[in-house]
Design brief:
With 596 residues, the chain is of the alpha/beta class. The chain contains 21 helices and ten strands. Among the domains are: 155 residues, no CATH class; 110 residues, no CATH class; 80 residues, no CATH class. The strands form two sheets. Strands 1-2-3-4-5-6-7-8 form an eight-stranded parallel β-barrel, surrounded by five helices. Strands 9-10 form a two-stranded antiparallel ribbon. Helix 7 runs parallel beside helix 8. It is globular.
């Protein structure tokens, strides 16, 4: 079925969209659930079973394949409850206050079924039955989609300490749990290509066409540029796996982990997808069909094409409409603003208050992630308070219970997490012995436990205390959230997305393209500062490419602004001047003998 709404709510953290389908799917809105934390999935299943009087039997960690089974059980519960919600909604009266009325009021003003719903106001009650029945027949839920961060894929041990086969790793277990569930949704693969994970997907029939010509489960790739989309899409296509959607995400103007490009900006990236969309479709279609024929499986229908969507920093309906129209997008993703919509996401009251009170400088790109990837963070979060308090008490680091991000073997035979108390204690000890530069120690102590911090909010918002009383919350909003300064209802936020209402956001908020450019200039400025003592040939090549791409992006935007009159261009000109100064500084840092 086609999407009811041309926007979706992307995955946010581990907890913030963990039960969003229960809040928004009945209104036709699709959202994405993180599958990283099986403990959190199990806790939320227990909570929602109790709230909805559904029998609950715990799946314990000592049981066989518990990670996948927990995932399947939670997703099946979501589907069961959403199906119940939709069934009830379809029986409600069109009285202007019921959920079925909200369903249609949430649609875009130009949607044919919004217009049909509005016609009810002009028709006598005794003559409404035919239209009301047509409206009821139209109702369908939003998709229950899931996210697997491909790089979070720890190998696991069995009961006796033996290493389990590859299919019991974290990511493959999560995929198996989704594939074996009753959910007819999509899995979003983010953070790049994982060959083992992608190959494993080919073992599940639900990723191939069924007897009705449908894909019961679909694949979405979150990508940063066209090259990544083509490489990953071809890898999957050669296994007969079709990519139903490419979600282009800004490298820096997004929440969570930030995968910065080498200075490639969103506008030029979207332009390349626009120019090469047919090439991408035809290449993947041919490769996928060839694989399906060789496997003896049902072939794809002629004319099938992947959707192309964008997410990262959108803040106004005008921006969304322009991107949809100019680049021919099929949809957009709106993440961080929905953190301020309690009807859509799970954020505890204390964290909501901290977000609303935060200044623009409190939203920053940190080194908090044990993955070594830049991470969008909030300086005033309770998670940051906890991290600093631990350092002040001379006990830096976190107890490491969940171990989703263990990877370091610098001091130990078994991998440990760089945010763990064990690792940071060993690093502090090394510093006291004089073998560790102070700057490096500071970067190490900035690492924080994302496993606990990103999962606590959902439990707290349900009035429950997380396991072991680890209640500090790490929040990972995109920089765009600083411009939204109050709580909003679902109908207000969706109305804002469609231009039916205008939320009171900061009037000084820059255009989505300008904001991303500002973030990239700040990013390269910090990178130059880190390399201030010396530039190696590899660094010189990197920075030259980075500056060339940023200058190219500014030239592209100048042309775009002249053609489309998107608004005041003065911020771009200011960015351009700043970039010129940085480029000049970079040139002065290059040794005379170094080739450019």
């Amino acid at each position: 079925m086609p999407s009811i709404h041309p926007f979706h709510i992307p995955v946010m953290g581990l907890a913030f969209t963990i039960d969003s389908p229960l809040k928004v799917a009945k209104f036709g809105i699709s959202s994405v659930v993180s599958l990283v934390d099986d403990q959190l999935l199990e806790d939320m299943r227990r909570i929602h079973c109790k709230k909805n009087q559904v029998p609950y039997t715990a799946i314990e960690e000592h049981e066989e394949d518990f990670k996948a089974r927990r995932t399947t059980a939670y997703l099946n519960l979501l589907k069961h409850l959403v199906d119940q919600q939709v069934s009830r909604l379809k029986t409600e009266p069109f009285d202007g206050e019921s959920d079925i009325c909200r369903y249609f009021e949430l649609l875009p003003a130009s949607h044919p079924y919004f217009l049909l719903y509005k016609k009810l106001e002009e028709i006598p009650v005794e003559e409404r039955s035919a239209i009301e029945q047509e409206l009821r027949d139209f109702v369908q839920p939003g998709s229950i989609d899931v996210n697997i961060m491909t790089k979070v894929d720890k190998l696991n041990e069995g009961k006796e300490g033996e290493m389990l086969p590859r299919e019991f790793s974290d990511a493959l277990s999560a995929l198996r749990g989704f594939a074996q569930s009753d959910v007819n949704g999509s899995v979003v693969f983010s953070a790049g290509l994982n060959p083992s994970l992608y190959s494993y997907a080919s073992q599940f029939q639900d990723f191939y066409l069924n007897d009705r010509g449908e894909l019961p489960k679909q694949i979405i790739l979150k990508v940063s540029d066209f090259r990544s989309a083509l490489i990953q899409g071809k890898f999957l296509a050669k296994k007969g796996l079709w990519v139903s959607e490419f979600r282009i995400e800004s490298g820096l103007n997004c929440g969570g982990h930030a995968f910065a490009t080498d200075g490639f900006l969103a506008g030029p990236i979207l332009q390349e997808f626009k120019d090469k969309r047919l090439e991408l479709t035809e290449t993947l279609f041919a490769s996928c069909q060839q694989a399906l024929v060789g496997m003896g499986k049902a072939e794809l229908p002629v004319g099938i094409a992947p959707k192309i969507t964008y997410q990262g920093g959108l803040g106004t309906s005008e921006e969304a409409k322009f991107l949809m129209h100019y680049y021919g997008l099929d949809g957009t993703g709106w993440g961080s603003p929905f953190l301020l919509v309690p009807e859509a996401t799970s954020v505890d009251d204390d964290t909501l208050d901290r977000i609303i009170k935060a200044k623009e400088s409190d939203f920053y790109l940190s080194a908090a992630s044990p993955l070594g990837v830049p991470f969008n963070n909030l300086r005033t979060s309770s998670g940051e308070d906890q991290r600093k308090n631990r350092i002040a008490k001379d006990r830096p680091g976190s107890p490491c219970y969940k171990k989703f991000l263990v990877s370091n073997t610098e001091f130990t035979d078994k991998p440990i997490c760089t945010a763990s108390r064990q690792y940071q204690h060993l690093q502090v000890k090394a510093n006291k012995e004089g073998s560790l530069p102070a700057a490096k120690l500071q970067a190490i102590l900035e690492k924080d436990c994302l496993c606990e911090g990103l999962g606590a909010a959902a439990l707290l918002s349900e009035g429950e205390m997380p396991r072991r009383n680890l209640s500090a919350v790490t929040i990972c909003p995109g920089p765009n959230l600083t411009y939204f300064k109050q709580l909003y209802s679902l109908i207000e936020m969706v109305g804002h997305i469609y231009g039916k209402v205008k939320l009171p956001i900061d009037p000084n908020r820059p255009h989505v393209f300008v904001k991303e450019l500002q973030l990239y200039i700040k990013y390269v400025q910090n990178e130059l500062h880190a390399s201030r003592n010396s530039l190696h040939p590899k660094n010189i090549t990197y920075f030259k490419k980075f500056f060339d791409n940023l200058h190219g992006g500014i030239a592209y935007y100048r042309s775009l602004w002249e053609e489309n009159q998107l608004g005041n261009f003065s911020m771009f000109e200011k960015c351009s001047a700043t970039l010129d100064l940085l480029h000049s500084r970079f040139s002065s840092m290059i040794p005379e003998e170094a080739p450019i």
